[in-house]
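Minutes, project check-in
Item: structure for the 206-residue chain
Input as provided by the requester:
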Amino acid sequence: MPLVSAAEAYRQLDQGDPEPCPGRPKRPGLPSPGGPTVEPGPDGWATSATQTACLPLTVTGVTLGTVPVRTSRGEAQVPAWLFTIEELATQVARLAVAPTAVTSVPEPAAPPRPLPDGLVAAQDLAAVDGARLTVRLGVGACDTGITPLMREGPDVVVVGGAVTRSTGVCPAVLKLEPVTVTLAAPLGTRPVLDVSTGAALSIAPR
C-alpha cells in the first residue's frame, strides 16, 4: 500500500514549537529555580510544577518498521515510521499508511425479511486459529440443538447457526453461545460475515 514519507510523518508530529520557557524546570516534578520551596505531596511539585514543565525533545533518527493495530479482522502489523527521541526511552510511532489507502467500511444492506425460523445470527468472533473459527451465536434462552453453519468461499466466509426452538414458555433473553467451525483452508485475510446482516464480524474484546 502507498506510504507517506518520513518527512511528512515528522511534519504531522511537529505541530509547532512552544514559546521559550526560561526558568521552567527541565523535568516534571522539580520546582523552578528561585521559585518557592514546596514540600512533596498532593499540593506540591507533582501537581503545580508538572503543569508548567518544559522539556524539548530531540529527534535523532527514524526507521521504517511496523506497529500492531486492532482491526475488524484481529490484530494487524501496520507500517509505521519509528522516531528515536534522545530524551525518551521508547520510540515514537507514526503510522506510515497514506490516507488515500484508507477507506471507510462499507455499510451492509439489511435483508428485506427476517431470518427463517430456526436460523440464528452470529454476533462476533471469539477466536481465530488458522482454519478454526470460534463464533458466538445469538440464541434464545431455551433453544436446543445449536448447530454452527458455515459457507466458505475464496474471498469470504459466511457464518450463522441453526437451533431448535422451544414450544413452551421461555424468557426473552439473548444468549451468546460459542461454536467452532473448521475451514478447508486457513482464514488468512478473508472477512467473516454474519449470515443475517452481512456485516463483517470482529474479534470480541476480552
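Outcome recorded: The CA atoms of residues 17 and 91 lie 20 Å apart.
No further action items on this chain.
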